[in-house]
Amino acid sequence: MPAVLGFEGSANKIGVGVVRDGKVLANPRRTYVTPPGTGFLPGDTARHHRAVILDLLREALTEAGLTSHDIDCIAYTKGPGMGAPLVSVAIVARTVAQLWNKPLLGVNHCIGHIEMGRLITGATSPTVLYVSGGNTQVIAYSERRYRIFGETIDIAVGNCLDRFARVLKISNDPSPGYNIEQMAKRGKKLVELPYTVKGMDVSFSGILSFIEDVAQRMLATGECTPEDLCFSLQETVFAMLVEITERAMAHCGSQEALIVGGVGCNLRLQEMMETMCQERGAKLFATDERFCIDNGAMIAHAGWEMFQAGHRTPIRDSGITQRYRTDEVEVTWRD
Amino acid sequence: MQAPGGSGGGGRGCRDGAEGGAGGPGGPGRPGAPGVWEGAGAEGAAAGEAPQVEGALHSPGRGAEASAEGARPGSRRRLNWFSTSSLMVPFLSFMDAEIARRYLAPGVEALGGAVHREFTVIGSDLVIRLTAENPSLLQISVASLLNQLSVVVQAMQRFVPPYFLKPQPGKGG
């Protein structure tokens, strides 16, 4: 019954998780929150991670009731993500692996989300909508790879939401997306925004440019409220995501859909996806904020799967890759 | 090495190439802990400041080459400038230095290959040599390296206590 320790720190969340045989034994996390109207920069984020990571590691071991001797493998996020934060976490993972003489595993962040989603929900072979601040992909498993059926051709949906939040100076605590969601619930008017779906792909940079341009004018003239803009943006971007997910499900003949990633916590997105799935006779799976949002346990669990399948990352290859595609990994732990 | 925020200290270091060497936060620290020796050119620099690579533009050091091409009057000469800096980090033993070397060395290419890092263990000292295309990159890479070194040493201190709590004769440890 191997126990795997996982480190995640590709963006502004840093987490350390412990998983043994599909059971999450510990999953503490910290978030680097910046003032309203600002985003998080790589250097500052890395500084935050360096300041808390060793405490988090101690906390994870204590919560799991384990010592270094009980850990069988160290997993860390190899990519994709922001360079400086990834490096700061990889350094600690590499250090601990050598200190404790344990094998090291570099894990793809996207696959961490997928595997944790499958573990928590029990979905067998779903079409996955992976939506976060850094990634937007529609993924399905085929022949030992997680294949990307559709994706954003520019910015991620979460990035679109976060940058819109800056325009309105919406608080980043606990996250800008969450605060947009709460404001959207009070929106009453649907403002028409650019809807950009290109086949299996989506584009969000145009809608962001448009809304950044018109927001101040419309608010100043009283045409709409900030709540209306939040509501309209969500409705538009989420509809785009539902469309490309449905297209992928139709292509694959899939009867399951799984939402993962930080934006997957959004209840309105889940509601819209549920409606689409019901119309198709399919089933929707989603997790809560513990596992939707970046966390260490998802890296630990993906690492556990990889460890069981015989994967190892030599120390000389234990760097990071800012652009690490989901379909680069050979998924040998699935049939 | 002390955790970041500790008091600075002077020391010796070995420098090649650009003046200004490299230093960083922390000093010899408490007994039994490794220290960071600042380059001589960084004397007077406040603890915690990013090292100033002074004089690099004026004294390119061994790394500068003048291209023979285009040396005709009126033509522009192309010079390839390299900035280098070295850090010597003392540890308690060869094994500690070797462990730190293995933690820091592999797989992390800085700044798209524009910075080259070499790690050597001499006795119980870890010698790190950085070479960059220009002083700004060198400054960034030194700061980044010191941050990484800080995390590595803290991890060693917290998770392998015997390395740093061994009583040392005459040091009151």
The Cα radius of gyration of chain A reads: 20 Å
Evaluate the radius of gyration of chain B.
Answer: 18 Å
Low-pLDDT regions of chain A: none
Distance linking N and C termini of chain B: 16 Å
How many strands in all of chain B? Answer: 5
Number of strands of chain A: 13
User: How large is the share of residues in beta strands of chain A?
Assistant: 15-25%
User: Please, how many helices of chain A?
Assistant: 10
Estimated helix fraction of chain B: 10-25%
Label the overall shape of chain B.
Answer: globular
Task: Please bin the fraction of helical residues of chain A.
Answer: 40-55%
Biased composition (Low complexity) (chain B): 33-73
Family (chain B): Belongs to the CTAG/PCC1 family.
Biased composition (Gly residues) (chain B): 1-12, 19-32
Protein name (chain B): L antigen family member 3
Question: Could you write a compact summary of the structure shown?
Answer:
With about 325 residues, chain A is of the alpha/beta class. Chain A is built from 10 helices and 13 strands.
Topology:
The complex is a heterodimer of chains A (335) and B (173).
Chain A: E1 3-8, E2 13-20, E3 23-26, E4 29-31, H1 42-64, E5 73-79, H2 83-100, E6 104-108, H3 109-121, E7 127-131, E8 136-142, E9 145-151, H4 157-167, H5 176-184, E10 197-198, E11 201-202, H6 205-221, H7 226-252, E12 256-260, H8 267-280, E13 283-286, H9 289-292, H10 296-308
Parallel strand pairs in A: 1-5, 5-6, 7-12, 12-13
Antiparallel strand pairs in A: 1-2, 2-3, 2-4, 7-8, 8-9, 10-11
Helix pairs in contact in A: 1-2, 3-10, 4-5, 4-6, 5-7, 7-8
Chain B: E1 65-66, E2 79-80, E3 83-90, H1 94-104, E4 115-122, E5 125-132, H2 135-159, H3 162-165
Antiparallel strand pairs in B: 1-2, 3-5, 4-5
